[in-house]
Specification:
With about 200 residues, the chain is an alpha/beta fold. It contains eleven helices and seven strands. Helix 4 runs antiparallel to helix 5. About 30% of the residues are buried.
Amino acid sequence: MAAIKTVLFDIGNVFVHWDPRFLYEKLIPDGDELDRFLKDVVTLEWHTEHDRGKSFKEGTSELAMRFPKYEDLIKVYDTRWTETISGQIDGTVHILERLVERGIRVYALTNFSAEKWPPFCREYAFTDLFEGVVVSGEEKLVKPDPAIFQIAIDRYSLDAEATLYVDDRLENVEAAEAKKMQGHHFTDPAKLLADLEARGLL
């Protein structure tokens, strides 16, 4: 394998804990009802359309028309979206800081709403450390579509074989590997650190 020169990171559940459940468990006290709501109404598939470029206003309005009895709960997905994030994963942020100190190039490729990305960056200072970020909502493409990985490769002149891609979703890691990148399926900072140390990056 080629020596790693660049690390390309996912954001959600790598640098911050993200789950719509964090918001809705505050609003739906019954566990069974909460599970049904997240399975049938505010689903990951529906959310992904915001990552693909749909506005939250449009997405929540459309869903509220399909499920009018849940209109109030659906609309807060926009107004209280920040509560779907429960906090920063400090261990990964520390790894990012160390990579930057070592002179390793660091970028991000994230499935993220174009409208929510700027306020997220203002809230989380670690985003300033990336040399560049490809945001799915801006590109109207979502991982694991190979095209969005190619955008990152082309935009930042990445040597794919010398790039390590880090993501918590295995299908995204496999898509990066199909683009000749090396992959790390993220589960926790300790395992990522051990992998980076084994590769001689830290």
